[in-house]
């Protein structure tokens, strides 16, 4: 059974430029669906539509059998906890004036009290922050620091901890490693894969990096100019019948 269903989604900006055209896919529980494509092809616009930051022109976005695409901001609120995001620039995602503990607490203060958590237990702020930092393999003492005191990899781990804090059903990962060095990229990808298994979370992993998408995902999609031109299981990446654009990306991958 699908957790997220996206059907016939179109998005056009005011200029008349079509950004998304007839986008269709589904994501199952504990599945990582990878979306690869060049910069400007519509990947991040799709992420904003799934997060209900941008409205779609037509089509449907359904999470847990609940349509999200036609709801007001007020009626969306109970469902926002189920879909979170980790973006490419952790420095921009964290408020520089807040200590890490306060950034980690923000989703829980907004949504966490609405539901019983299965993997984390809230007793007090410090204990909760320690659990989250441990989950992303960071020392508990970082809770009292500010973002500028952390490395890029540490900051991205904090944003991951914040995203998992309310145990969402799905996390949109939009280029989550593109600002990191090679060693940090690999470590963060391994961490994300482990958390998916441990917490039962699903991912939409968006990247221009075919190798990273192939490593993380069970199923893959290729986007070009707002159109999903190819969809396949990861084992079929090198099949002879791949779309010509996919084959172009593979040639760069190799």
From TrEMBL:
Keywords: ATP-binding, Nucleotide-binding, Transport. GO terms for biological process: transmembrane transport. It comes from the Bacteria. One of its GO terms (molecular function) is ATP binding. Residues 4-250 form the ABC transporter domain. InterPro entries: AAA+_ATPase, ABC_transp_ATP-bind, ABC_transporter-like_ATP-bd, ABC_transporter-like_CS, P-loop_NTPase. Belongs to the ABC transporter superfamily. This is ABC transporter ATP-binding protein.
